[in-house]
Amino acid sequence: MSIELVKDVKKTFIEKFKANPLLVFSPGRINIIGEHTDYNDGFVFPAAVDKGIAAAIQKSDSGSSTAIALDLDSTIEFELDKLKPSKGGGWENYVLGVVAEIQNRNKVVGDFNAIFKGNIPGGAGMSSSAALENSVVFGLNELFELGLSKEDMILISQKAEHNYVGVNCGIMDQYASMFGIKNHALHLDCRTIKSKSYKIDFKDYQLMLINTNVKHSLSNSAYNDRRSACEQVSELLKVKSLRDATEVDLEAITGKVIPANYQKALYVIQENNRTLKAVNAIKNDDLDTLGALLYQSHEGLSNQYKVSCEELDFLVKQAKKNKHVLGARMMGGGFGGCTLNLIAKKEAKAFSDLVSEAYKKKFNKACSVYFVRLSDGTRIVK
Ligand code: GLA
User: Judging by DSSP bridges, how do beta strands 43-44 and 184-189 pair with one another?
Assistant: First the structure.
């Protein structure tokens, strides 16, 4: 966790509101494999990381509520009986959405003040949004003794994103952020919302993230389009979701689906299988197989599911040229953000230098390299 973040929000809160806040840290996540499978009731393999959002939060008796995003230097004031999504469509909708969804469950939240600060770069595909949502619901649950379970809380966070932000996301991000376990990744079944944790120790290898530092516009509508394409194909297949379909089932309806959607559904079915294979590879310490699966996942995301972009494809191509990288792929929703690379520890610095230079030369802008620790989920900080 980033203790500096927590100190910052605490200090600012005391200065501004003259009260001692409750402190919450809520992490972002990586995802080893299983991309765009979560809203198809499939499998994913994420982990919470040591980067995230710190929140200082306390009841208010001023008759209204205030939320401050310290790193954006942005403040909103709102009244709890008049909540609606803000037109600006920024960070505030994650906060307002969570409060509204708590109210929708007939739970009573009183006025509060909150200050947030994070160290996940926006648009990195590391779920700063889920971290923010979870910090709000976790803090309010504690302050107002709402009696919500962690399962309730992640469903509230997800609904906030659907109804206030307008992204029909799956449950992976909120789950990983809330339930993360230090040094472990979570093999999550998104249908049952139950996971099994696996200790991650890649020995001479490690995970390295490279951020393209781009987030292409329209990514929200493109995301929702992918989700509805999957739902249309499941309907044709007469299954609840693509999790229940096989490649053979899909082949049987070839003529009935436009080729672009056929490829998308095929990707999901294949990615779901890859995720199961990746879990086995980790069980068997078989990093070569894991690496190969990562590359296949990227191919599918780029060519079949069409959620990659030039910058991400370039970074994966650089990885493929380097024999010390066992696998790489884009991570998260896509259209920008990070690639995840499985690389020999002693070669990480050299590869990072090489790729940074090549990226700069090609796109005339910098990429950023991060190493993350797998961490515990959303929690109170004493
Ligand atoms: C975003 C969504 C998740 C998931 C990923 C893609 O991060 O919030 O629910 O669908 O994209 O795997």
Answer: antiparallel
CATH superfamily of 205-370: GHMP kinase, C-terminal domain (3.30.70.890)
Domain 3-199+375-380 class in CATH: alpha beta
Beta strands in 174-307 (DSSP E): 184-189, 194-199, 205-215
Tell me which of 38, 50, 173, 313 is the catalytic residue. 173
Instruction: Specify the ligand 1 atom closest to the Cα of 172.
Output: 9
Note the Cα 362 to chain centre separation in Å.
Answer: 28
Asked if residue 133 has its Cβ within 6 Å of ligand 1, the reply is: no
pTM of the model: 0.97
Q: Determine whether 173 is an active site residue.
A: yes
Query: Where in the chain are all domains bearing CATH 3.30.230.10?
Result: 3-199+375-380
For 122-141, write each residue's pLDDT tens digit.
Answer: 889 999 999 999 999 999 99
What lies within 8 Å, CB to CB, of 58 at 6+ separation is 13, 17, 19, 20, 21, 22, 112, 113, 114, 143
Q: Which amino acid is at 319?
A: A
Q: Given pLDDT bands bounded at 50, 70 and 90, which one contains residue 63?
A: very high
Exposure string (b/e) for 33-53, b if CB count within 10 Å is 16 or more? bbbbbbbbbbbbbbbbbbbbb
pLDDT confidence of 220, banded at 50, 70, 90?
Answer: confident
Between CA 68 and CA 72 the distance in angstroms is 8
